[in-house]
């Protein structure tokens, strides 16, 4: 899953990005409202974490423009004081949630997960494909009650396929999910991650199938 963090405090932004990546999120980060507005017109994100007070365009204006374009991506606002006025401003601007600084990243991750579940229409806390299980609350995969030890990008690819289970997912969608602005996008790398995932799933009844020219699909084997 891919997030956009908009935060002008470089130290806080660096710390938050690193911790979110440890939680298996792909993260883009920009330092001001104008950059955020541009990014939100060209990129797809699962959640936006947006500071309320930003240089060159404040968070309320970024959010207002986003909603005027009809984009309903979930937005968590970061507020400095947590006053009633701040909270009212956040929700009036169209925010879905808010977190008060300084924050514990575990709370931020929990709120991001809750928004993703809500956006997915109350997605079940446990998704299955054959004997492969995905626990949405922890974003972990299990096979025969054993947790799959996946690298971050392998996890993102499998998560993207699981959330679109039974549907063809193009390589470009996988690339967009996996790579942030700091990365060099590589179609060949997606093939490598798929190859590694197939090894992880070798004893599972879940399989990743290649549809040439179209992409990949996760489905249960039929015996």
CATH architecture identity of the largest domain: 3-Layer(aba) Sandwich
| CATH fold label of the largest domain | Rossmann fold
The average pLDDT score comes to 89
Briefly note the structural class of the backbone. alpha/beta
How would you sum up the global shape?
elongated
Main beta sheet strand tally, sense and closure: 5 strands, parallel
Question: How far apart lie the N and C ends?
Answer: 32 Å
The strand count comes to 11
Counted up, domains total 2
Number of helices: 8
DSSP helix fraction: 40-55%
Instruction: Describe the strand arrangement of the main beta sheet, using strand numbers.
Output: 2-1-3-4-5
CATH domain class name of the largest domain: Alpha Beta
Question: How would you name the CATH homologous superfamily of the largest domain?
Answer: Response regulator
Q: What Rg is obtained from the alpha carbons, in whole angstroms?
A: 18 Å
Strand content: 15-25%
Would you mind describing this structure in some detail?
The chain has 223 residues and is α/β, with parallel strands linked by helices. It has two domains: 2-119, Response regulator (Rossmann fold), CATH 3.40.50.2300; 126-220, Arc Repressor Mutant, subunit A, CATH 1.10.10.10. It is built from eight helices and eleven strands. Strand 8 (140-143) and strand 9 form a beta hairpin. Helix 2 (33-42) runs parallel beside helix 3 (59-68) and helix 6 (152-163) crosses helix 8 (187-200). The model has no long low-confidence stretch (mean pLDDT 89). It comes from Paraburkholderia graminis (strain ATCC 700544 / DSM 17151 / LMG 18924 / NCIMB 13744 / C4D1M). InterPro entries: CheY-like_superfamily, OmpR/PhoB-type_DNA-bd, Sig_transdc_resp-reg_receiver, WalR-like, WH-like_DNA-bd_sf.
